[in-house]
User: Fold this.
Amino acid sequence: MYKFFYSLIVLSFLACNTNDTSKKIDKNDVLLAKVDNEQLYLSDIPLFQLNNLEFEDSVSFLKAYVQNWIKEEVIVQKAKENITNISTINRKAKQFKNDLLRAAYEKKVLESATVEISLKDLENYYKAHKEYFVFEENYYELQYILLPKNTSGIKQIRKNISENKPSAFITSYCNNNPEKCHLNKSVLKKESFVLNNLKLSKSALAKKSSYRYFYPTENTVLIYKINSKKNKGDIAPLEIVEKELSLMALENKKQEFLQDFEEKTFQKAKNDKIFENYIN
Assistant:
């Protein structure tokens, strides 16, 4: 008998084409459980949780869902009887619901809007928030190339690099190994990277010079030149933090857009006399 009852429920559920729990209960809905004045109907169960289940699994799911709902409602009913600050909890629940609705609406508004940042926006945000872009450790601006140790003519390669003379070998190597070649433009690297990855010593970092070569491992040779040092606590140049800056400036622009949207929505509601304020 019980199996037949659950079969009817599952078949009825799978025949539904909606999981809108805000829909009014109709005469064809199935009452599954009741605790005091709270009732659980078939339409209250999210459809997507049953969509991919086999029939027997659906029956098990329904049993477990109803049982868990009853347990929760029994505890909630006991809480209502024993908790004195229900009004405070209701206010918090309402605020939480409002926050969720507002967040969902703001997301929808932003998706339908075009919020872009210009170079001027980046510059303005950078100037106003330089304290966000402080170097957390020493940085070094350097140029380098990391080659296999068995590369022939290391001295000549270093000489060509120092004199900025084109070389078919260097051009080919850099094209094939861009992560190991930073000759055309200085890169800014953390001191920890230079010490641990490039294996340069602190004494080597203290020297500004023309290109030198050094053997960081038994299989590699590093040709490098240190151009400058950025101290811990210094403000990072805009071009160095541009990617992070862009994300922060865009988020700031979105917040400004939403604040403006909120004010315009409020003013329209005021003009349309949608609300009444009795203390103003």
About this structure: The CA atoms of residues 182 and 235 lie 23 Å apart.
